[in-house]
Amino acid sequence: MILHNNIKEFLGQELTQAKEVWIASAMISRNGLKFIQEHIPKIAKQHYLIGIDLNTEPEVFVRLYANSDHNARVYKSAYTYHPKVYLILGLDDSLKAIIGSSNTTTWGLEKNVEMNFQISDQAECTKLLDWFNGLYAKGHIITPEFIDSYRASFVRMRSKVKEIDTEAASLKLELAENSGQFFTHNQHRIFKEIYHTVENDDLKELRKEVRARFLELHSRIYPAFVKEGLVNLHAHHQKKEWVSRHFFNRFSGFYINAMWLHYGKSESELAVYNNGDRSINNPSRFINNIRMQVIIHDQDVGLWLMLGRGGASLIDRKHLKNKLADLAFRTVFFDAFKNLGKGYWINAGAPVGEADIVTADQLAQIVMQSREDAYFIIGRNIYYLDNALSDKQIATTVMEAFKKLYVLYELIRHG
């Protein structure tokens, strides 16, 4: 069915009966977004893939970012993003689509000379949904940094029309600069503080992606452990625990601020510590012992040797402190720490860089004064755009770090 100039009335009516919508629009205005929100049921799921080539208003991104229930991404490529697609799943579980020339603006929906076509054929609508999901997977999640950068660019583009291409190219670089990295821009940004307690469909999928990437990294590095001398560094004896949880539950506290791939003691080593405690504090639990891990955050990837907090890793902590009473061991421990080199640090309550620790006694004092309620970590964090974290280099980067940290792992490890 052909829809001429004014699709606002038809779209509004369809939105009132929507269970879920997918909107791919080159440009969305504040009024356009307001129109959608005024007509769509609050419980309906919403998915947006928005362009920035045609000056979408910054306030649109602000509002979508503020509402974590909406799944919204920005699409930017080397070419202009120009679709106008409205796909609606109705209460009767049938799909309808409107495709054509109308952007999600007041002018596009009711005033301009536009041409649109309404599709009810379910096979064709399903193809449109597949098309949307394919592009959506390549989109960028909305972050405060993006909004600030885009707002500044938006103002300059409006006041200096001749500089539009330059400004657009600069913003495109910001979004695409992670090309070739092992973890994508989106896979990092989901660990921003605002998302720590949010679990919408978009974030669930991205956390699954991070888990899958960690399993891929495991397949690249773990087979080399024994050959590289990491003979006492083992994956968790249960495969589902190789990577930290990517979903909310009572154990995670409905809170995910990072995810990690970790290695530690073998099942037989851990069994020795089993005291029958059925709580999370059982000393035979994998996470209650010394571990080495690759951990992803918003802005970096950490390569860490760590002892847990809140009663975790007590056996290893006590073992290390007892050994540090021996002056000869202090020297060995200090030499192994200094061998880590530039960029490494120890954090036993507060971070201290490798270069700032100049004596074995200074290092020993930091360890001896460490509190059980604080994490004990030795490692380094690498900026997420560093070439060391590229898809081609990350396995080498992790193995080089693990070989250095493993010396300390063996010195600290009880067993």
TrEMBL record:
Gene3D superfamilies (UniProt xref)? Endonuclease Chain A (3.30.870.10)
Source taxon at top rank: Bacteria
Q: Please list the residue ranges annotated as the Phospholipase D-like domain.
A: 69-135
Q: Which Pfam families match?
A: PLDc_2
Q: What is this protein called?
A: Phospholipase D-like domain-containing protein
Q: Which organism is it from?
A: Pedobacter zeae
